Amino acid sequence: MKKILGEFEELILLLVASQHDQAYGLSIKTAIEEMGRSVNLSNVHTTLYRLEEKGLVVSAMGDSSSTRGGRRKRHFVITQSGKVAIKESKESRLRLWDSIPSLVMEGI
Amino acid sequence: MKKASPPKLADRFFKWYCRNDLQESILGDLHEQFYMDLKQKGNQRSRLIYWVTVLKFFNRFTRQNSMQKPALFMISNNFRSSLRFLLKHGNYTILNMVGLSIALFSCLLIASFLQHELTFDQLHKNSNQIFRVNVIYSDNSGSQTTFVNSPPALAPQLPELFPEVKKSTQLRYALRASLRNQELVFYEDHGFYADSSFLEIFTVPLIAGDKKNALDEPNSIVITSDLAKKYFGDEDPMGRFITMNNDVLLRVTGISQPIPTNSHLKFDFLISFSTYSIPAGYLSDLSSWSWLGFLTYVQLEDHTSRHEFQAKLDDLFQALDPESESPFTTIVQPLEDIYLGSNGMTDDLASHMRSGSEYTVYALTIVAILILFVASFNLMNLTAATNLTRGKEVGIKKVLGADKKKLAVQLLLESTLITFSSTILAYGLLLLLFPQIKSIVSWDFEINPDLLLTSLPFAFLSALILGILAGIHPSALLANLKASTALKQGLSTRKGSNWFSSGLISLQFIISVSLISTTIVIYKQIDYMRNQSLGFETSQVVSMQLLRRDMGTFYQRLKEDLLQHSQIQSVSRSQRIVGDPWPANGVLVGGESEYKQVLSNQVGYDFLETMGIKLKMGRTFSKEISSDSVGSILINESCVKHLGLENPIGEQVHFFGQSRTIIGVMEDFNFSSLHSEIAPAVAIMPFVNVENLYVKVAPGNLRQSLELIEARWSSITGGAPIEMQLMDDHMNRLYQSEEKLSLLITGFSVLAVFLACLGLYGLIAFTVNKKIKEVGIRKVLGASISSLLILFSKRYISLIAVAAIIASPALYFVLNLWLNEFAYRIVLDLSVLLWAVIFLAVISLATIGARTLRTALANPVNALRNE
Question: What is the value of pTM for the model shown?
Fold first, then answer.
């Protein structure tokens, strides 16, 4: 079965990939908020767990810091099928972009 | 400054629900975020965000494993084993359910009655602004009479005199009237003269007609849709004519919806007040301030103090004659209080208003609570008793790993299951039996289906509470049992639980003794009242209420005609029927300056003979002495004392605008009910056409006599309607409210005692079953059957004795309070209590005996053989 990515899922998957090795719940939340979009930490976590369930990311416990009260982070890394998923979604987008007649986008 | 940190409680909550492997990383993120937020958003906001996030984190990824599946499987399993247990103890389950559903049914029944009684007159939109002006008349001797009536001059002036009066209206009872549409003619007893402001103050929805002016024009009538159907069938009555009393032509200007049963005013028609004309012979007119013949209702502005308004009204009456102290003071009575709060008030017009009794309301509330108690005690006792046998079951469950909480929940589930199904049964019973019960106790209301629906959640909530209450003791006992003890020796009946059940049983006995003695006292009181000598004889008297006009025209001819027949002994008439309240008036003894208040009646010739009232001295009205018709007066013995006369015969008094000579003294007789003392009363000859006709018939064939009267009346009047009643029936109706109360209390007492016995039976059956071996051994050792019976019943007999001792003081107090309502009452003595105890003891012993005897008579071998 082909896994269909939701918009938010795709966004998070992209962020996991771009923050390679350093991605964890709060870092992704901060990154989304920097994009001008507000989001609750729990939504980010839940989506990450869902992506993990679908096999698109894997997680491992990592380092800690003092503000965390000595608690370790859970780092997320994109898997092979995760990479395939974002690549496919990018390509389908590109195909759609290509099919837009040039005059539609004129003047932007 | 204290260092800000994430809320501890939120952390604890999170740790409670979150699975362990995710806890560390999420909590880390949460804390990190908190300190980030702290810099930008401040402590309060960060804490809030923290809490919201913690709450939002609760989902299927984070939940603890054990929480992931709701315990559906366990619930269904518990349910099944509960059902098995209940079926195994089928007898007790049925006993419990029957008892409980009967009890709940009684409570629902009483609740629907109370709902009706307590919501009287609340249907009017402005009910909290509407008041009735009652007038208290005090005479010089200090005796006071409270009238629901007021003088006709009052109502029209109120809005002008007092700014707080929004609107005012007055009613005049239309007496018995005959209404006629062509061939259809009936007597109607429920009608008032009223003006349009009546329709504005009270919420009386009109189906047709305009309430602003329907009652403005003279000769207008507004009828209820029921009456419209009666007289006009399916035709449209609007604009049609109805003839009242064969005299006045009234045009139908409005049709109202039927008046609900929870309204103290009961009417089928309203005639415009401008139609009202004062009957010939009356000395007052509509500007009178002393003629208490009208009902005055006012609608006050919001937040008006009725006490202040009442004080202003008192001043108004005082201002009429500043020279002397006014005999009139007022009571401004809220509309919603009228129905239950008008006991002891006199309606000078006997205008058929509904009035209820607070006693009935209180009594039934208490009875409902008591019944509920009895049934819950049964449930508690039986649940406790049957659960004592479950030691082994619980032991095995514990060995198999059931935890304490779940065991307790299962046991609670069982008792709740019983209470829930009983509740459903009770509602079924209510819907099924209400029509029958309604006709037995002559209630005139219907169950309100909306209210029934809204009561459902409460009923089930109470069922839940009741179930938990009943189950909590045994379930705690069982759940805390050690598995090894449970398996080894089962659950022993500990001293504590024995005390508990003894306590419940004695409470039940207290309730039973109280209800039985109350029933006995009510019966004795009613019986006493019935058998009191009233001072007059009604057994062969037939009374008829006829139209004043017809009486004026036909009375003499009818009397002469009837007296020619041998079975008619005498004929007379009076203004007010004996038994209805007599109007109060002032009498002035010659030489004195102050009027004294007495009750009065206008009576025809032969009145004393017809009613069997004895003369103490003097003579009665005589046809031979022409001055009697205006210048003579009869007084009763109380009146002699009241007026302070030494030699009453021949004294001159001033009464009803006329100087009159006292010609005779009547022996005291109870012309109204035995609730009140015999009041000072006088009788004069009629100066208006009076409407009550009495015929005394010879003993023997009553039916024939009634037919004769009807035939003669009909032939003389050319077909005017007639309705006869036996005076005995009329007098019995005076005690109707007591009889209704006694019927209800008796019914519910029987139920309560029955329920208590049911519980007792269950408990005894259970005890006997457990002691079957003991009985066997005792029999083998030579115990007699009677000694066995005593063995089982002595505990309960002593409990009954204890109950009687505890109950008696409270009972004595409450019953005396009720009896004090009556001027003629029985004396309370110990015999009532004694009878109640004997009765209860006999029933209980029969219950115990019925169950015990079977065991005691059985062959001991059967009990002992199987081991």
Answer: 0.72
pLDDT digits (tens, 9 = 90+) for B494-520: 545 677 778 888 888 888 888 888 888
- The answer on B529 and B554 residing in a single domain is no
Phi and psi at residue B325, in whole multiples of 5°? -70, 130
In tens, the pLDDT along A53-74 reads 889 999 998 888 878 888 889 9
Do the strands B681-684 and B596-602 form a parallel or antiparallel pair, or are they unpaired?
parallel
Q: With contacts defined as CB-CB under 8 Å, which chain B residues touch A71? A: 24-25, 27-28, 31
Please tell me the distance from the alpha carbon of residue B60 to that of residue B339, in angstroms, as a whole number.
61
A42 contacts B59? CB cut-off 8 A:
yes
B582 and B712 both lie in a single domain: yes
Which residue do the tokens 């937040």 mark? Answer: B303
CB contact under 8 A, A26 and B61: no
**Residue entry with tokens 């309370």:** B828
Rounded Cα gap, residues B100 and B123, in angstroms: 34
Residue predicted with more confidence, B866 or B481: B481
Indicate yes or no: CB of B32 within 8 angstroms of CB of A68.
Answer: yes
**Is residue B52 in a domain?**
yes
Kindly list the residues of chain A whose beta carbon comes within 8 Å of any beta carbon in chain B: 24-26, 29-30, 40-43, 45-46, 49-50, 61, 64-65, 67-69, 71-74
Kindly report the backbone phi and psi dihedral angles of residue B502, in degrees, each rounded to the nearest multiple of 5, phi listed first: -60, -40
The fold of A8-99 is Arc Repressor Mutant, subunit A (1.10.10)
For B637-694, what is the HEC assignment?
HHHHHHHCCCCCCCCEEEECCEEEEEEEEECCCCCCCCCCCCCCEEEECCCCCCCEEE
Q: Please, is B704 exposed, middle or buried when counting C-beta atoms within 10 Å of its C-beta (0-12, 13-18, 19+)?
A: exposed
Shortest CA gap B24–chain A (Å): 6
- CA nearest to B145, candidates B290, B367, B329, B350: B329
Give me A43's structure tokens.
Answer: 């939504």
Cα B735 to Cα B224, B375, B582, B738, distances in angstroms: 30, 32, 17, 5
Which residue range forms the structural domain that includes residue B767?
A: 500-533+730-867
Q: What pLDDT is stored for residue B494 in this prediction?
A: 54
Cβ A71–B33 below 8 Å, yes or no? no
- What was the ipTM of the complex prediction? 0.89
| Residue B27 at interface with chain A, using a CB cutoff of 8 Å | yes
Q: Per-residue pLDDT averaged across B235-247, rounded?
A: 89
pLDDT digits (tens, 9 = 90+) for A5-48: 888 999 999 999 999 888 999 999 999 999 989 899 999 999 99
| Contacts of B653 by beta carbon, 8 Å cutoff, 6+ apart | B587, B588, B589, B590, B633, B643, B659, B660, B662
- B28–A45 CB contact, under 8 Å: no
Smallest CA-to-CA distance from B839 within B742, B753, B761 is with B753
Same domain (yes/no): B715, B829: no
User: Which CA distances in Å does B188 have to B177, B180, B244, B454, B722?
Assistant: 5, 10, 10, 38, 12
Q: Which two tokens stand for residue B340?
A: 């239950």
Tell me if B450 is assigned to some domain: no
The secondary structure of B423-450, three-state, reads HHHHHHHHHHHHHHHHHHCCCCCCCCHH
**CA neighbours closer than 13 Å in the CB half-sphere of residue B114:** 18
User: With contacts defined as CB-CB under 8 Å, which chain A residues touch B52?
Assistant: 40
Q: Is B354 contained in some domain?
A: no
- Domain ranges within chain A, ordered by starting residue: 8-99
Chain A within 8 Å of B24 (Cβ-Cβ)? yes
- Gap between the Cα atoms of A57 and B602, Å rounded: 107
Residue B680 shares a structural domain with residue B717: yes
**Is there a contact between B305 and B227 (Cβ–Cβ < 8 Å)?**
no
Chain-chain contact of B31 with A67 (C-beta, under 8 angstroms): yes
Query: What residues of B are in contact with residue A73 (Cβ under 8 Å)?
Result: 25, 28-29
